[in-house]
Write a structure and sequence with these properties.
Blueprint (H helix, E strand, L loop, with lengths): L2 H12 L28 H11 L4 H14 L6 H14 L3 H13 L6 H15 L7 H17 L11 H25 L3 H14 L4 H12 L6 H12 L6 H18 L6 H17 L12 H9 L3 H10 L1 H11 L3 E15 L2 E8 L3 H6 L5 E6 L17 E12 L5 E9 L26
Parallel strand pairs: 3-5
Antiparallel strand pairs: 1-2, 1-4, 2-3, 4-5
Helix pairs in contact: 1-8, 2-3, 3-4, 4-5, 4-6, 5-6, 6-7, 6-8, 7-8, 8-9, 8-10, 9-10, 10-11, 11-12, 11-13, 12-13, 14-16, 15-16
């Protein structure tokens, strides 16, 4: 996803004459000039500039502008000359020169109006967004200039005759572009916290924006230390944006899933990762802000939970429900648990597996009381498990079964589901030994004649 290209195309559609919304108080040139009713230049100056401005050939125009500056280095008309330069260079895709002359315009300070400075900052931002792979210093300067442009435009008055609502919309569109430029430049300059601040300001105007949500996710991911949960939240906002097409949404979701796996130290349970991702997408799709109650467990959280767990604590925690159950399940899902003590209540052969349902028990009292299954094992590679006898009026079989915990159903119908299960070998029915074949009776020798 190319945020730079998206923002650049937005700016082209807007043009260089819109206004902006102030976002933060930053140092900017005090462009305070007020056009005078009395010209402060000669007719010769004016005619020379007009001839240069009307020149259609780009190279010839630059030469004419150079001649004007050499002849009139302090002219009041420089506030018109420099924009002619930077528009010329932008048309030639000479973006470094565009930036150079936009900066010259801003440097005029009290000789330039707020509108002059705004247009220069805007042109500069547009040029920057078209520079491939800018270095850190170029990016830092672009960020500072974009934010200064936002401040300078506080002073731009509403043009006469322009509807208030239309003026507001223009300001919003301009703010989106300049803030987006500041965010993009912040990422390029490794100012991730600053980039996050800029993209959040964009989303305050347009919360569902695909690119800004994704870029804010990138900003949170590159902070030190990374704010991974916040990054995932805004990636999910991008994936569920109404502006995302099917392919964009699919690609972002794949990236989110991979990021969750990495954050949790490598998944051992695909179904859990899918459930976590679906929950995140559902929440992010319905709220611009991440709820304070939302949490995604980290690799350290899961390691601590696993270090403290055994099969008995897992059963207890999952039955209890709540936040403890969520953490325990996140740590336990996909793990193999050895020799789970099980009172067998049902045995059913199936294709290639034997399904054993039973109850988890840890004492004689629990064994006697257990009548409802809460464990389901799919035993593989042990067809003899189907021959375990369930005799009426006799105690149920007691087995130790090793298996991988895949899923569970919470109360009121609590059930833990296990795959790749095996019954302890010495608890399986033994094959009856076949009696040895009888040896034929030895034949007596025939009597001699």
């Amino acid at each position: 996803m190319n945020g730079t290209r998206w923002l650049a195309s937005l700016a082209v559609g807007i043009g260089l004459s819109l206004f902006c919304l102030n976002a933060a108080p930053l140092a900017a040139q005090n462009c305070t000039a007020v056009p005078s009713a009395q010209p402060k230049y000669t007719m010769a100056e004016y005619n020379t500039y007009t001839a240069a401005a009307n020149e259609k050939n780009a190279a010839t125009q630059v030469k004419a502008l150079d001649d004007f500056v050499a002849k009139y280095p302090s002219s009041e008309l420089l506030r018109f000359v420099y924009p002619t330069y930077y528009k010329n260079y932008f048309s030639q895709k000479n973006f470094q020169k565009t930036i150079e002359y936009a900066d010259k315009e801003v440097a005029l300070a009290d000789k330039a109006t707020p509108q002059d400075c705004y247009e220069a900052y805007y042109a500069r931002a547009l040029a920057y967004m078209n520079i491939p792979n800018p270095d850190a210093q170029t990016a830092k300067s672009a960020r500072d200039a974009a934010l200064a442009g936002l401040k300078s435009l506080e002073q731009v008055p509403k043009p006469e005759g322009l509807d208030d609502e239309k003026f507001k919309k223009q300001k919003e569109q301009s703010a989106i572009f300049l803030l987006g430029t500041a965010g993009s430049a912040g990422l390029a300059a490794k100012d991730c916290a600053g980039a996050a601040e800029s993209y959040k300001a964009v989303l305050a105007i347009t919360p569902d924006d695909l690119t800004s949500n994704f870029s804010l996710g990138k900003a949170y991911a590159c902070t030190a230390p990374p704010q991974t949960v916040d990054a995932l939240w805004y990636y999910s906002r991008a994936a569920t944006s109404k502006n995302a097409n099917e392919q964009q949404s699919k690609s972002i979701k794949a990236y989110i899933r991979k990021m969750i796996v990495n954050y949790q130290g490598g998944t051992v349970c695909d179904s859990l990762t899918d459930a976590e991702m679906n929950e995140l997408l559902q929440l992010a799709g319905s709220s611009a802000d991440r709820p304070a109650t939302y949490k995604l467990f980290s690799a350290d959280d899961l390691k601590a939970a696993r270090d403290a767990m055994n099969i008995a604590t897992v059963v207890t925690d999952l039955k209890a429900g709540g936040d403890k159950a969520k953490l325990t399940w996140a740590g336990a899902c996909g793990l193999e648990f050895p020799e789970v003590p099980t009172k067998v209540l049902e045995i059913a052969p199936a294709t290639d597996v034997v399904v054993i349902k039973g109850a988890f028990v840890t004492s004689d009292a629990e064994f006697e009381a257990a009548t409802t299954p809460n464990l389901e094992f799919k035993v593989v590679g042990q067809p003899e498990a189907a021959k375990i006898e369930m005799k009426k009026n006799e105690p149920a079989p007691f087995l130790h079964i090793t298996g991988t915990l895949d899923s569970y159903d919470p109360d009121p119908a609590f059930m833990m589901h296990w795959s790749k299960a095996t019954v302890k070998a010495d608890e399986l029915p033994k094959e009856k030994e076949k009696p040895a074949p009888k040896k034929p009776a030895p034949k007596k020798p025939a009597p001699k004649p």
